[in-house]
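Quick check before the chapter quiz. The format below is the same one you will see on the exam, so make sure you can read both the input and the output lines.
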Amino acid sequence: MPAASKPTRAFVPLPGIEYATAVHPYVKLTPNPNGGPKITFTPEEVEAVSKPNVLISGGGIGGLTLALLLHKANIPFLVFERAKEITPLGSAISMGPSVAALFKQLGIWDEFVERSKEYHTVNMYNEDLKLMNTLTLPWLEEAAGCQNSIISRPQLYDLLLHSIPRDRILLGKRILSFSQNEDNVMIDCSDNTSYYGDILVGADGAYSAVRQNLYKKLKKIHKLPSSDDVTLPFSCVCLVGQTVPLNPEEFPQMKEDTAQTNSVLGVSTMCTWFTNTTAQNTVCWSVIHFLDKDSSKRHDSFRNSEWGPEAAEALAREVRVFKVPGGKGRKRTHYGRVHRQDTQ
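Here is the expected output.
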């Protein structure tokens, strides 16, 4: 008699073979007039054995969005996040009309609207804050159903996080490696724990441990495409942040019904910077510092290490004098003034 094993979703019993009753707790054996056992399931049992168990590496925006999708579909899952505590950071995220249908299906659209602000224009300035161009999308709502929106990353993260059962998110779980066979996958974590599942999803960032392990295995058997066997391009560093809530009397742009979205294109600085107002009366900002071949080498350690507060503060000191639109009685202010309001 063959050893008991987990039945596949297309399990067909072979005639004349007696199967063990321990094949699976949901399996029931009934006489088969054509010879051999017949396996039958109740509707509830079919649903239970037909749904895969999904393991998600990474508890960021992508990982939590997938987790919420699976939760709504009643598909079992676990999220493995390497951080030991949740500290949502980041700046603004622009969300287009394509997310509207998704968020409505997930039941979070109304709350997303409350936490975000539409934006209809993007103003582009030079370093002296001379307006160079304004991008407008007046046709977007009619064509796509809604306008673009700005939401701070912490707000979006909090919205997703509180829509998912907390016992499905495991903190302090850094995935070191995985192994798989035809039926399932097993992950090993840095705290000496292991977990089994049917599907493993790598949502753990640009330098994903899941991807690196997968590529290593594919390369060993000569199945890794040459286009994937290259170093990930690295051409810029980015500093992001968000202010505390600002006084609308001092910053009148906070009173606007739509988000004020501005970009400043640097020339002499090798930087481009952005500001966005939010529904919480904050300013989300970001600075992109473009690198040449030599400066890229100096920053190459970012591939394998965390960018600590010292490096962030060093770049912050460099950009404090950058001019940005806004402030009462003035057409401009500067990043140093914004930084003093910053909580990160």
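If your answer matched, good. Residues 1-32, 340-344 have pLDDT under 50 and may be disordered.
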